[in-house]
Amino acid sequence: MDDDFYMLTEDELACGWRLGCKHQPHLGEMIQTQKLNALTDSIQENRNKNDLIFKKQKNYHRKISGKGFGIAVDLGTTTIAAELWQINPPQRLQSHTVYNSQRKYGDDLISRLAFAEKSALNMEKLTDLLLQDLAALFNKLLKNQNLSPDTIESVTISANTVMNHFLCGINPISLAYPPYEPPQIQPIFPFGHSLLPQAKFFIFPNLYGYLGGDTVSNLLTLHTLFTPLPKNWLLIDLGTNCEIVLANKGIYHLASAAA
Question: Residue 162: CA atoms inside 13 Å, Cβ hemisphere, count?
């Protein structure tokens, strides 16, 4: 019982919450678990609150004409970088970087997870800050190139597991406790930014734990630029957080840590 009082809040205890790993179930008891890999209610609620919030895209599966432009976003813990590309022929036109405004609530991911855990309002603040940062980046790129928002056909976002969840309004608090399972693993593609109504959005999927879409995008880039790859190689992404991928004869060994 001591672990229950240490890990759970007073409200959770009053509602009958207990640590499943510390209690043996008895016949007739019912256990309710969180639905993993599903969008939480918060994203449904927020979708109607803020003009910047993600909205469902009915035309996601339409083909890109290749005549417009695309934006690639590196959504980091400390900085957010975006590049504007001409799709056909491929040409990088401009890049711009801003600081991640979430820093006011902690420089590291654990601090922000703790902030999000305190209340639904805190979680909403973290999501809104990312959306505002993206809006600032998109506006800057469009203004400097004198482009209309309708000319942006695709946006690709690479981010770590926690940032992916914050961006989409999904509370990732499960990542703060063992076994560190993210609520969402699959690609989160049926949503777009209202600032770019014609753009097709794609967020790289999370792998597991703190190995997120940034690791997936790194692997994709590696296999695209260096083909064929040697049997053994080492990939290191050293930022505010560090991800390492060691390949040994086709088998990948992955790890992550605070840098």
Answer: 26
Looking at the domain assignment, is residue 254 inside a domain?
no
- 73 - beta bridge partners? 82, 157
Could you give the CA distance from residue 123 to residue 165 in angstroms, rounded to a whole number? 10
Asked whether residue 113 is assigned to any structural domain, the reply reads yes
Q: Which range (4-18, 19-33, 211-225) has the least confidence?
A: 19-33
Write the single-letter amino acid at 200. K
Q: Note the pTM of the prediction, 2 decimals.
A: 0.73
Domain total of the chain: 2
| 91 and 20 inside one domain | no
What are the tens digits of pLDDT across the range 77-107? 999 999 999 998 899 999 999 999 999 999 9
- The region, left, alpha or beta by phi > 0 then psi within -120 to 50, assigned to residue 123 is alpha
Could you tell me if 74 and 81 are in contact, meaning their C-beta atoms sit under 8 angstroms apart? Answer: yes
Residue range of the domain that includes 211: 41-223
Query: At 19, which amino acid appears?
Result: L
Residue 98, Cβ neighbours under 10 Å: how many?
15
Residues 66 and 141 in one domain: yes
State whether 49 and 117 are in the same domain.
yes
